[in-house]
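Lecture notes, continued. The same structure-token format from the folding unit now serves as the input rather than the output. Read the line below as a description of shape only.
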């Protein structure tokens, strides 16, 4: 069941998305060497609370997880790329950090993620982040009325392959609205022209995650959540919640 949103509902989702963007910006600004992941989670909790928003991450327990998620941010360092738990780990110079955040405001949800280097970056990490963001942009550009979910997937997959990065279709994009994960799923690879045809009012999260080692194999930590590359190579993740509109894609997870 896919629920198309009215323009007013899309505006309400953008208000939730703005909270997500502000929480991500605050976490990024605070992410310096020596800072603990739990401190970043605390900062994001403050942004959500000040906005009157709640976290769709906190206490979330999908079928793949054997315990509820304990934070409002997923904080994934270096070879971890998705669903990292905010632990007492202290960031180090050169760490590649992926931050994923959700917020629910007035019954509507936004979901977005960003990756960046803490302190001094390596050229390899900067390229990985840049290519992941390029794939997100390519996916967003493809999200126009009359195109298909497969067009978004193909646009993302094309960037991964051209860049030599590993790509997996587990844990891709998804519908977003009253809850964080709705239909349809938006896989990070696929064939152009296939799948659901996009209509104005469709709201989805698009979220490429790439592995620098070029392989698609990953593993989950004993904590039941943290997803990391199987070969120890670094990963990056980028995500926006967007609306398909008659005028083209509208990014909802931007600060306003
Ligand atoms: Mg997310
Ligand atoms: Mg998501």
């Amino acid at each position: 069941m896919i629920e198309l949103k009215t323009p007013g509902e899309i505006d309400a989702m953008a208000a939730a998305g703005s909270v997500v963007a502000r929480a991500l910006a605050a976490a990024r600004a605070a992410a310096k060497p020596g800072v603990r992941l739990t401190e970043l989670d605390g900062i994001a909790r403050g942004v959500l609370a000040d906005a009157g928003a709640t976290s769709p991450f906190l206490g979330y327990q999908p079928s793949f997880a054997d315990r509820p998620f304990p934070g409002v941010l997923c904080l994934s360092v270096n070879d971890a790329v998705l669903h990292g738990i905010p632990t007492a780990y202290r960031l180090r110079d050169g760490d590649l950090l992926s931050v994923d955040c959700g917020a629910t405001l007035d019954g509507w949800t936004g979901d977005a993620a960003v990756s960046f280097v803490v302190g001094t970056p390596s050229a390899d990490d900067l390229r990985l982040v840049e290519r992941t963001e390029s794939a997100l942009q390519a996916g967003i550009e493809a999200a126009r009325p009359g195109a298909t979910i497969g067009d978004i997937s193909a646009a993302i997959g094309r960037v991964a392959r051209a860049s030599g990065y590993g790509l997996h279709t587990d844990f891709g994009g998804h519908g977003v609205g009253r809850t964080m994960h709705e239909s349809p799923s938006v896989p990070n690879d696929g064939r152009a022209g296939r799948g659901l045809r996009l209509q104005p009012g469709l709201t989805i999260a698009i979220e490429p995650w790439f592995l620098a080692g070029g392989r698609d194999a990953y593993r989950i930590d004993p904590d039941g959540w943290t997803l990391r590359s199987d070969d120890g190579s670094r990963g990056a993740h980028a995500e926006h919640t967007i609306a398909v509109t008659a005028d083209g894609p509208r990014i909802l997870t931007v600060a306003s």
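Point for the exam: The pocket of magnesium ion (ligand 2) is lined by residues 111, 174, 205, 207, 239 (CB under 6 Å).
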